[in-house]
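HUMAN: Can I see a protein plus its fold?

ASSISTANT:
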Amino acid sequence: MKTLITTAFLLFTCSMVFGQTKKADRLFEKWEYYEAAKLYEKAVEEDPSSDNYYKLGQCYQKMFRFEDAVAAYDKVNASGTYSRADFYLNYGLMLKTNERYEDARAAFAKYSTMAPGDARGQIYLASIDIVLDDLQKPVPVTVSNVESINTDAAAFSPVVYDGGIVYASNGPSADGSKTFAWTGKNFLDISYAKRGSSDTDFGVSSSFNSSEVNNKYHDGPASFSKNFDTVYFNRVSRELKGAEKRTIGVERSKIYYAVKKDGNWSDAEAFSYNSDMYGVFTPFISADGSRLYFASDMAGGMGETDIYYCVREGNKWGSPINLGAAVNTIGREQFPSLDAEGNLYFASDGYKGYGALDICVARFAGGKFEQAEVLKAPLNSASNDYGVTFLKSAKSGYVSSDRKGGKGDADIYYFDLERDSIPCDINTTMFVIGYECKPVRKEEVADMVRDSIVPVVVVDPGIDQLQMGIRPIFFDFDKSDIRTDAIKDLDNVTTILRAHPEWNVQVSGNADARGSSEYNIALSQRRANAAMKYLSSKGISVSRIKTNAYGEGKLMNDCKDGAECTEAEHQLNRRVEFKLSVNKSVTVR
């Protein structure tokens, strides 16, 4: 009887799990990833199979929850070779967004073996070496989180408007009960924030003051004409009815525009190439109003989504023109924009870049766009980067990113290439992967001759005293992101190294004892690398920085495996330490 009851219970459980996954599969097919993920989460509790974890990871990937996605995919990979080749492509992409480059290399190699006819495997595989090489050539450019705007909600694609900026956001809306089935979060609205005393200082954000522009569902991002009297924007509405709704099933993104007359916006009108069969989105109107750029997955494209433009013909728009192989790839191209010189910027995941969407530039020369290139870090990161706009030529502006260390789903960041102490003249159009800043000094030749003749070993009696003023920086549990409370201490190290070019620094990463020894070594290396990247972003050459990874090998207390310790005691072990040393190959004059 006991065996019969147990068997019946197992059959009931399997039936329940099967029902959950079937329902989740249907939701996934309808792009309702948030609810699908909740069902897959329940399914893996009862049946932790590779199939269920892969489906769960795909939901997280679609919702841009990249850390959760890679954790689910790790479970699939740990169970042995998976039968579906596309798993290794998705796994590699998620590993790359989490900066696990060597693991990503292995995943892309596996995909290339299983799907040799798909060029993406080799493209992404080649990107690993390109990115790792580029990260060894940092230039002291910084991006700053616009904290006066960003919240735990998404904010992205800002454009200048009426003494401030307009951007897309899924913050609290007029009807908070409505949520987007893809993410489980609010629908997008077009928001406005008035500029304060600087380009990073803004007042309280509010919904764009026009019911003609913001409706119940998705609205944004937006683009304005040069004199700000016409706005083009994305909209997703619930327009499908009856048999059409049952047949098509999915509402497509469309472009609308409104005209401002006597201080009021007209009713929104539909772009002539909207369709229920494909999407058109992320519009950008050129400064002279002659071209409208946008992204679309209409038939005849080169990849998942391509960038097109239409030419104004009187009061109408001509047929969409695909920008071709100089811009579009087999991947996704979206979020087009132009700088003052007519160069095209856009986001793509089809180039050999850092990961997810990267901001790319196609220079405009000879009446056409040249082959696009990927912008260098930190304008790009391992995560999604897109929605760039400019304030002064190509010297300053904003980018959107959901990179680590942000405040929300996606944040707006500010850059100013004239603000930083950069030893050469650069702008975004030339600031692409592989770029190295090589300043020319008149004294270089004389310096090299003098140094080679009179080598003097530096011995600075102040090194010990300055070392005493350097404090370690600390990290959250299982994280390698630089915390805001570490910035002051990192800047102190930067100041010392700038003042003493004859000194180097050892950057040593540590972890608490929770987790395996192997994992903690890797974690402490990521922490040391994060500190190194920060110092290099401030102009300290990576040749002066040596990283060490000690894992749990240098605990500051007795919090070993199995010991009962408070979180404060564990915190002491999650640190990076800095030790100055003299570079004996450097000479003084």
User: Anything to note?
Assistant: The chain has a mean pLDDT of 85. The CA atoms of residues 343 and 365 lie 8 Å apart. The longest helix spans residues 2-29.
